[in-house]
Structure formats: structure tokens, C-alpha cells
Task: structure prediction
Amino acid sequence: MAFSLPPYHPPHSNQPPFLAAPPVAFKRLTQPGVAPENYHATSIYPEYHHIKKGEWRLLKETRMDCVVVRERDGSLSVKEFRHLKPGDLVACGRQENGEDGILVHTDAFSFQEDASQKFAFRTRITRETSFSIDYDQLYDLLSHERKHGFIVWVLGPAVVFDRDARDAFAALVENGYVHGMLAGNALAVHDVEAALFKTALGQEIYSKRAAPLGHYNHLDAINRIRTLGSIEKGVNEGLVKNGIMRALILNGVPCVLAGSIRDDGPLPEVVGDAYLAQDRMRDLARRATTVIALATQLHAIATGNMVPSYKVLGGNRVRPVYFFTVDMSEFAVNKLANRGSLAARSILTNVQDFVVTVARGLRKRRGGVW
Amino acid sequence: MAFSLPPYHPPHSNQPPFLAAPPVAFKRLTQPGVAPENYHATSIYPEYHHIKKGEWRLLKETRMDCVVVRERDGSLSVKEFRHLKPGDLVACGRQENGEDGILVHTDAFSFQEDASQKFAFRTRITRETSFSIDYDQLYDLLSHERKHGFIVWVLGPAVVFDRDARDAFAALVENGYVHGMLAGNALAVHDVEAALFKTALGQEIYSKRAAPLGHYNHLDAINRIRTLGSIEKGVNEGLVKNGIMRALILNGVPCVLAGSIRDDGPLPEVVGDAYLAQDRMRDLARRATTVIALATQLHAIATGNMVPSYKVLGGNRVRPVYFFTVDMSEFAVNKLANRGSLAARSILTNVQDFVVTVARGLRKRRGGVW
Amino acid sequence: MAFSLPPYHPPHSNQPPFLAAPPVAFKRLTQPGVAPENYHATSIYPEYHHIKKGEWRLLKETRMDCVVVRERDGSLSVKEFRHLKPGDLVACGRQENGEDGILVHTDAFSFQEDASQKFAFRTRITRETSFSIDYDQLYDLLSHERKHGFIVWVLGPAVVFDRDARDAFAALVENGYVHGMLAGNALAVHDVEAALFKTALGQEIYSKRAAPLGHYNHLDAINRIRTLGSIEKGVNEGLVKNGIMRALILNGVPCVLAGSIRDDGPLPEVVGDAYLAQDRMRDLARRATTVIALATQLHAIATGNMVPSYKVLGGNRVRPVYFFTVDMSEFAVNKLANRGSLAARSILTNVQDFVVTVARGLRKRRGGVW
Amino acid sequence: MAFSLPPYHPPHSNQPPFLAAPPVAFKRLTQPGVAPENYHATSIYPEYHHIKKGEWRLLKETRMDCVVVRERDGSLSVKEFRHLKPGDLVACGRQENGEDGILVHTDAFSFQEDASQKFAFRTRITRETSFSIDYDQLYDLLSHERKHGFIVWVLGPAVVFDRDARDAFAALVENGYVHGMLAGNALAVHDVEAALFKTALGQEIYSKRAAPLGHYNHLDAINRIRTLGSIEKGVNEGLVKNGIMRALILNGVPCVLAGSIRDDGPLPEVVGDAYLAQDRMRDLARRATTVIALATQLHAIATGNMVPSYKVLGGNRVRPVYFFTVDMSEFAVNKLANRGSLAARSILTNVQDFVVTVARGLRKRRGGVW
Result:
């Protein structure tokens, strides 16, 4: 079944009652990092701002829980509170139905009927839910996105704890199914540890044997990379001979490694400031047309907050952004499911099996050649 | 890597201190279903009873928490308390080191060194444990057992809730990897429902669409089978055209469907009496050389209690019985892990993925032909 | 805040379109245990059958997934398929809006506004949901039901694995908050084990110390009770000096112990036949005005299927039946939450804490005296 | 039962083979943030370094996965790799038995026999484990630590999502049972949201009612605090009238709020740099004699890595540091249980119930007066 993007239906903003709506009010800021009373907060949905009589302008990009700033050139940007500066003009108004000049458009895409019926059931995804169709549709989607989209993966460290899953993900990178990656220090640490010692946290990632003095392995991996100055040098100088980080670096796939309070090291590429890391992550997230988050609650929720449900392409075409969460825990996937978007899905399984299965399925689609 | 069974090491019962041990004491019962004080309870391990000076006899078969009865012909049988009859001679003595004439042999097999080291880590299997080697060793094992063993599967209903998993399991049956099945009413009900209506609990097992009045589907499935008189007739008369039950019946694979207080119907083949069901399950379990339990805590634990860690083959050769538990929940698999046998393993994943992956892996081993 | 039952609103069955509805059709059975085509299946909701022109009769009692039989005296009874006999007249028709003469009344009670708004959130109860109000309302409810209702508890064995929880539940029995109990063999086994040996599965229920040869304790407990012939004799003859079973027996509280394939023993009072156990459970369930299910997926779901959302009291007054599920697992409680009744609630916590907290809260309501 | 600290047993370092051990080797660093080959990495255990013939010096404080630096004054400090500077002298040697001049002392405390036996069972804490004794011993411990120790709590946001738990924790602060707190932005945000609007994420924390436009509440809470400049001003100027942050501030209890990539805002007190936050956290952690981590995997593991198993008091007395993890998930608590220290315990329950129960238990110990 060939994949096709669902059409986008703009709102009827040129009809009553929208014609009578006021333009959106902007207030000028005086205090840095502080929004005015009655500021308007964004969501993941397409949002139209009534700029002047009859002109409802779609936000080019958005994210959860930010504010809308009118720039000097008249364009609208969506900013985190912490980036607000004195003088910024911030959109105000909390009604989402247009009466404040702001229209939040929650039902913009006509997903195929089967999809829309199917998602009636999504409210309670459990370990007993059928996922066969999700794999098939994911193969369709990723085959399309490989050429026409931008696929961002969000990875917890579990993916590198298993040899086959680590190899499979590296193959996904090498074959063009990964356009950006968001992860933490631990993913890169244990990926490098596996390259140097074939272990993760001292345990061999295939045989599960404990390496002698294996609790030193991840520290040694960090220390050697720090000696060289970067993971990239570790790859280029032949220290890191396989794995996910190597595949990303050799294929020029951008990634953001965000630091956390759990980190050892950290590795040189890790962004230690949480909010700088957020900014870098959003730089990738705003390019995403599909996001797949594997076994990481922290990074998955962080990314979910940054990724809008739509993307404006060239020619003002609008398409949905797909968002998949894969985890073992109903609790974790349900946290994301509250996005309430038809384009969000959850699969409950072990991410090792998921990655191996997806790589095998995509490879088969391409006739077994990659 | 060709699979080979680990050698069995009998205990040194012809050496001191065993030579000085008394023969095991047997007491004659007077009250039905009641053991004498100081009765000896069995475990899953090989157990030797000192019958007469110098003769330590291995139990031909055993299970958890039963008692040993000396039959009139001198043989030893392992009986549930509820099957004890007045006149039965019951073995007494609670020391397991031979001093009561009973020797429990917990370390009987020399598993390969890698396996034994690996299992040092098994104490804490989590969702982040590497499972690649478990799949590979399972392919080795099942390829061996298909011809030389007896593979019993224990299935929760989740396997039939997903089209691909249901198809994959039916293929495992058709290709000789299933020699017995233990399950409950629900598995059979939703398997038949899928055959008749393509749904499970009213939801299509591929598209996830809700069928109109779909909550009647499983009741209608039950009612039609009850009209015919058996699932077997449903298969033979062409009502049940696909699925797991059909594969089992057409391939002559025995199964026990145990009833429970949750059941609708039940289907005619279901054994409503829990203890009769236990007896039937044990009849299958005692033939097992490998057991694989998928997503069912109740049946998995029940089976785990019935399956010993060893099997006596012809010529008094002794081999291990392998026991796999596959579930999404650490809690569930850890319950089984307490078996404490090197031959017990747990895999934490969604059983849908597990079944599809195992069928694919075994098919590949056989050159893609089945 | 004094507790009051929400009023019941009968449907407007004496108005169009109901006046034009046909009477419900009954078909006579020929085959035992098999319903006719187009049989009507019941739910947990109040259901009205159009018996003759203008007379819509409310089912006096109902349960999930059964059929409605018109008895010789004209009354309507709700029967499991397995109880159907040749000659029975079974109601047919699958529309629930009255057009087949059957009206399913899903919105019968006006719960207080806060409750109904609150339950808008119930769709996603998680471990992070606030439960303070649930405890408070439960104290209100149980204080009312103690005198005016019938409280049925459904217990998993975890409650007797902890000394304080076991003592607290026994106190609930002694003080009139338990009118019926549904459980399995394991609950009674480990409760008796605790009475005899202070252990559960060989571990002391307070100090967690392993008792020497403790794995014999539950078998010895079973064996001694089987020697006496019943738990009741064990209590009356002074063997069982404390615990939940003793409290139930001494206070004349009925209980059903349903057998399962996991059981050792079983204890004499256990009902081994799953469907006879279902019948006995339903005999208690049909008296219930409040049900509280603790840490048992099997028994909780079985009971949930048997308990209607309403109860017809004397004088044809109709009241809701409250249903609480308490478990650690989102998966388990969500299974029950699909009842879709405003009177169903879930609390995610350890049942040990739950029982101790509820006992303390109820005791405090009564001035600390019990 | 009065609480008493278990005695500390120093190793026999003045006996063979330790007398023959070499002094520990120190290497001088040349590259910042990079350890020399063969560096020694610390653990949570007491560790003795052989400084000169016969002088084995105990590390005054330690943590997981750091290195030991000999300062100019001859003292030994335990540093994160990222804090290493050129010229630092780093201890080398990986044998832990003294033969490299480094002795890791894993069995230093003689816990009471019952405790030590009990902990034989700790390897598999599950939701069915008995926790009565843990509560009782926790009351003993906290009553002692209130006066004689330093109790650090690590809090996930769940604690402020429930009115009773939030009130109970504030009472613990006010009554002296909280000497330091480690948490993230979210805890403080929703605590302030509750103070301002009685909601958490827009839902009332008692009634569970959805507040109108409630999704603005946490953003408004952040924005108002950012307007004032700090939570502390919010408290002092009367905006924040109740809750945990207010109790901490008014009682002068230090806390570290560590930023993360999930944060909105952040609040002014939040430390955005993960590694600066680590340093601040460790400043508190090194004072801890008891740590209690509630429903937060990230912060709990981060803290677990920073907290040694012992503390050196005045007069070179050495005592254990107690570490409790409370969570709903076996996965989460098992991650911490690998500390392998007898002083580490896990309780599986909802932290709301835990906090309310502990506050009630401690209050009762003090005669109900606080």
C-alpha cells in the first residue's frame, strides 16, 4: 500500500464568526523572561493569528507552552519564556476559538477513515493491543520519509545494551532512515563502551558474560574519548570501530546529546546546560516530520513538548508530523498519548525487538539489499 | 552452532557419607488426601531415594510440592496430596543431603561455561537486559527439540489478539515446533472469534477497527461452537478456517484448556474442574523437554510447578528440561525465575513480537522453506 | 460530609418512541447450553424489557454477557449460557435503544456534579493521580454501607503476606465492614500458614526472616487443615488462632474460595470446579452494594463481570453498586476501568498500605473505638 | 525499640598481608579532565589508601565512579573526572584487596542479626513483599536522625499532585524530619501551582476537578515567580501561602532544584547546568546520614551515585548512611537495589500513601503533638 500524506484542511477563517473577530492583541514586554498577564500559550496544534482584518496567519512552527512574539519584520515566532526580551511584543488572549483573534485548529488533517476509526481505540493502548498494522504502516511511512521527510529518533540507552539492536540501529542510520538523533550521555557512553570492550556497564552485549573489572569499562571509554577530545575524533582516529555514534558521525547525521545529573564524564559532545540542550534539540525537532522515541521517558516527553503536530512545507503546504513512542511501560506511553493527535501512536514492547524488527522489515521492502 | 545437551552428573551416592545413610522411611496412610507428619515434599530437582543398602533410586519424574509414594511394585511415584489414598506408603524425612535417605541433587548438569557465567547475571533480568543470545540459543534449542524433544507452549490470550502473532504461532504448529499446548478458555474463544469474525473482543485483529455490535462476537463464537459440540467439529465442519486451535487439531497436537472463574461459555473442550485440569496439564507437562510460557502468569506458574528440571529418557539417560518465560512484566517473569534452575530463562518483551520473531528465525534456519 | 445515594432516574419508556416499540421476542430453546440466533446479551447496566404493551420491566438483577430467560411465572432471569435448558424462553434482539423491545439504560444515576466532573479525568488514572478524595469518599461510603449495604471484598494473597495488612483486614471484618469475601486457595493457605507459623511462603510476615525448612510451612498448614477436614474446624478447635479466615468464620461472614490450576492442596472449603465457583461467587455478588477488589486480576475481573452497576432494593428503589479496584499495575486497574460506570474507581497503590490506611481511617471516624 | 547505630569494624590493615602491601601509586595529570591509565575508581564503600608504611587512611568521603586525588596538604579527595586539573596527583591501581595499596571495605558494619538475615531476602523485593517492619524501622531511624543525623529527601513531582501527601510532606519539614531536599523544576512548579490555584497541571489536587483554562495554571505560576525573581520572594511576599517549597524556605532547609530538558520556565532557583547541579547536589549528599528517594528514577539514581554507604563523624567515628527508595515500579527500585549495601532498602508503593503514612506514624511517636 503506497503511503500518502493526508490532506490539510485550513479553517474557515474567512467566514463568520471569524470575520467579526478582533485582531490579536500584542503587549510589549518590560521584564526579561517574563510574559505579560493574559499571554497566549501555544500548543502542538496549527494556530492562526488574526494579524489584520481578514488576514489569519498560520504559525510557521510552534511547540507546547510557549508564547507568540511578533518580530520586527512582522513575522510570528514561538518563544520559550526564558528567551523573552524587553521590547518583545507578545500575543495575548486565551480563547482558542477565534474570539481573541487566535484560532487553534485541532482537527486539521483528514486521516483515512480506517485510521480515524482505529484511533477510537487508542485511548487504552495496552500490552494486549494488536500492533501488526502499526509495523506495516511504519514501514510505509519510513519508506516515504526516507526520501521526502526528516526522521528524528529519540533514544534511551537500552538500544545499545543489546548487540542485535545496536547493529540494527546502525544499519538504519547507514541506510538513510535516521536524519537526526536526540539522546543523553549514557547512550553515547555505552555505545562507545561496546565499540571498545564489547560490553555495556561491564556486561558483554551478546554473551552477557561479565568482563573482568568490567565496572571500569564505561569509565575507561569516557576517559579515552575525553583524552582525544571528542567522539568524532574517536571515530576518525579508529578507536571507535562500530556502533551508533560512528554511523551517525560518518553519515553526517546531526545529534544532540543532552546532559543530566546522572552522567559520568560527560563525553565532550554532551551539552551540559539543560536549556541550551533544549534549544539544540528544538533545532532538530523543528525539522522533524516523523519522530520515534524509544525507551526514554525523559527525552521522549521533552521532545514531545517541542514537536508540533504539523509542519509547513514549501509552497505553504501543511503536513502532519508523526510521533511514535515505544516503551515497555503503559505509564510511559500513556504520558505521551495525551498529545491527543491522530498522528501520535504508541507501541508497547521491548525496544530491542522493535529496532531489530523494523530494520528487518525495511530491509525486506527494499528487496533485502542494503 | 550445533546444539548439544549438557551431560548429567549423578551424585556420588556410592561414597561416604551416603554409604552410611539410612534407607528412607515410608509411613502408611490412614486418611485419604492427608500426608503423615514429617512427609517429604518434592521439588523440581532430581531426587534420589535410598531404597535399600546402596541402592539410591532416581525419581523417574517429579514436580514441586508433592509427596513420594512407594507403589506395590516397588516403584516410586510423585503424587499430589489430593490423590493420596489410605494404605499409600509415603516417604518421610526433610533433610535433603542424604541423611534421611533422601538426596536432592541441585547441581546435576554441567552447562557450558559461558552459560553458567552468564546466569550469574540472571538474578536481575530487566527490560534493559540483552536478549540477542537468548533468541539464538532458542533457535538452536527448538531446532533440536523439534525432532528429539517435546515442546510444550503455555499461552495467554494476547497471542491471538494480533494477526501476525496468531499466524506465526499457527505456522509454528504446522512446522512441528509445538508438541503440546496449555491455555485457558479465553485463548480458544478469541482464536475462534478471529476465525469467524476477524476480531478479538470485537476489535479487528489487524486494522483495530471496532466491528458493529462487536461485543457479541466472542459470545457468538462460543455459542456456535457449543451448538456443534466441540471446537474440533468447528474445524472439521469448516466453520473455523484458520488460527491456532485449527492448526493444533489438524496436526494432532494435544492441548489442555483449563477453565477459570473469568470464563464465558465455556467452550466444550474446556476442563472446568481446576484439579482435573491440573492432572491433564501434568500429563502433558511430564512429557515436556522444553516449555515456553507466553504472557500468562496463572498458567505459567501452574506449569512451572508441574515441570521438573530434568527428564529421564530411555536408557536412563537424564537431560535438562528448559523453561522460558516471556512477559512484559518484571514482576511476572521474576516469579518464575525463582525456579533457580540454570535451564530457566526469562525474556522481557511483548509476546506478539516474540512469536513473530521466533517463527521468522526458525524459518530462516530452515532456508526459508516451510 | 454525610453520604447519600444518588437518585435513580428511570428511562422515559412511557413516551415516544418507546410507546411504538414492539414487545421483546422470546425464542424457545431446543439444545441445552446453547442460545438461539439473535439472542440478546446483557451488560452491567439497568435493562428494561418490553413485556407487553406499555409494560417495560427492569431486570431485577443482571451481569455481563448472559441471556435473559422468561420463567414460567413470567419473571425474567439472567442466566449464563451453560445454565440454559431446552424449553427455556430466551429474549432476542440486539438493539439497545428500545426498538427491539429492549432498552439498556446507561445513564441512570445523577452522581454529584463534582463526582461526574471528576470522572472526566478517570480515563487515565495513573500512579501520579491524586487519591486523597477517594479515601475520604470511601470512608463515607463504607460507613454507610456497614449498616445499610453489603460490602464484598475480593482479595489477592498479597494482603496476608504482611502482618499489619493482615491484622487490619481482620479488624475490618470484626467491625462489620466485610459482608462477603471472594478469594482463592492461596489467600486462605497463607493466612492459615501465618496463624500456624507466622510465615507466608516460609518468610516471617513481619521480620521477613526465613524460617528453617520454611518451604514446608504452607504445605504443613494445608495438611493439618485437611487432617481436620475444614478451615472452620481449624478455627473452632483452636489451631487457627488469628487472621482473616478466622475472623470471617467467627463473624459468620460468607466467603467463596475458588480453586485454580496453581493450587496446592487444596483446602477443603475450596470450590474446585470453576463454574460451580462462579455460581457461588455470583450468589454473593448479587447481594453486593459495594465491591472492593485488592491485588487480584483474575478474581477482580471475574467479579467485575458478575456485578451489575445497580441493585434493586425493597420498594423497587434502585441504587448504584460501587466498585473499587486497588492494584499496583496500571494494566490491571485499566482492565476493570472499562466498566464505564461512574461508580467504578481505581486506586493505584500497594494493597498493604491501602488496607492499613482504610482501617485506620474508619477507626478514626468511629472515634478510635473498635 | 530504641534505635542504635551498628558498630563499625575497621579492616585488619595492620596485619598480613596488608603489612606487605605497597603504598598506593599516584600519577600526575597533564590533561584537564582526563585521568591517567590505570586510575582507581571509587565506589560507595569505605576505602583505605596505603599512604605510607603502615598508614592506611580512610577516605573521609567518597562516591561512585570518581577518582582519588592527593591534595597538597596530603589529604585525599574524591573528584569527578571533569574536575581534574593538570598537576593533580591521582591514585592508581584496580585491585581492591590491598595489593595495590587500596583496600575497599565492603562489609564494615555489623547490622543486627535479624536485619542481616532479612536482607538475604532483599534480592527480590516485589509488590508482594511485606513492608510493615520497614515502616517501623523507618520511624525508629527518623526519630533518631531528626536530632542526630541529616535526612535528605529526593522528591519526584508525584508528591505534590495529591493534597494529603503535599500537606504531610510540608508537616515533615516543619517538624524537623527534612534537612535537605533534592528535586527538579517540576516539583517546585506544581507545588507553587497548588499554592496559587489548588491545582497540579490544571487538575485540583483534592477534588480532581479540571480548572477552567487549567493548562495555563502551571505557566502562570512560573511566570509570576519569574516576575518576582525567586520562589523565596514568592513566599516572603505572601504569594505562596502553603506547600513544600514554602515550608523549606521558612524553615531554612536547603534544597537543590536541578534543571532538565523537560522543564517549562524554569523557576529562578533552578540550576540549569546539569554538572553544576550535580556539584550542588553532592554538597548536600555528602552531609546525608539518611536518604529517602520518592518516585523519581532520574534523581534517585543520580543521588544514589553520589551518596557513600558510610559517613565519618567527629572523632573518626564511622556510621552507615541509610538509603530508601520508594516507587511503584519493580524496575525503578531494582536499579537502586544494586547498591548492594545492607543499609539500602526499597519499598514498593504509591508515594502518596507512603508520605501520609510516615507522617502519621512519626506524629504518633511524638504523642500526636506537632
